[in-house]
Amino acid sequence: QVNLVESGGGLVEPGGSLRLSCQASGFSFSAFDMMWYRQAPGKERELVASISGPGGTTYTPSVKGRFTVSRDNARRMVYLDLQNLKPDDTGVYFCHWPTAKLWGRGTQVTVSS
Predict the structure, then answer these.
(1) In the chain, pLDDT over 70 holds for what percent of residues?
(2) In a 3-state reduction of DSSP, which class is residue 90?
(3) How far are the Cα atoms of 50, 58, 64, 104 from residue 13, in angstroms, in the given order?
(4) Fewer CB near the terminus (10 Å): N or C of the chain?
(5) Distance of CA 32 to CAs 25, 29, 60, 92, Å?
(6) Would you say 33 and 98 are in contact if contact means Cβ atoms under 8 Å apart?
(7) Residue 29 has what pLDDT?
(8) How far apart, in whole angstroms, are the C-alpha atoms of residue 69 and residue 55?
(9) Where are the alpha helices (DSSP H) in the chain?
(10) Cα-flanking dihedrals φ and ψ of residue 80, to 5°?
C-alpha cells in the first residue's frame, strides 16, 4: 500500500526545536523528489522544503537557515529538522510525494510560550 505517515510534531516554545519524520511505503522511494508543506490556520498550504532523490535541497526563504530537510533512502524516511522556531511556524506539516500527488495526514506543530 502506498502511504506517507508523518510524526514528531508538538508544542514548543519560541526558539525551540523539533524533528519531523515521514515514513514512506509502497513505492520506489529513492528515485523521487519529496516535499514538506505546511498549512497555518486560515492560510493556504505552502511549500516549505524539497529534497531530490540524490539529496539536493530547496527551501522557502522564511525557513532558510533554520530548517533542514534530509532523507534516509534505505529506511524510506524523510526528515525535517526545525530550529529557532517562531510562532509563525505554527501549522500542520505535511509530507508530499508530488509524482503521485500523495499526501500524508500531517503533524501539528505549535510554537507558543
Answers:
(1) 100
(2) coil
(3) 25, 26, 19, 25
(4) N
(5) 13, 6, 20, 23
(6) yes
(7) 83
(8) 9
(9) none
(10) -135, 110
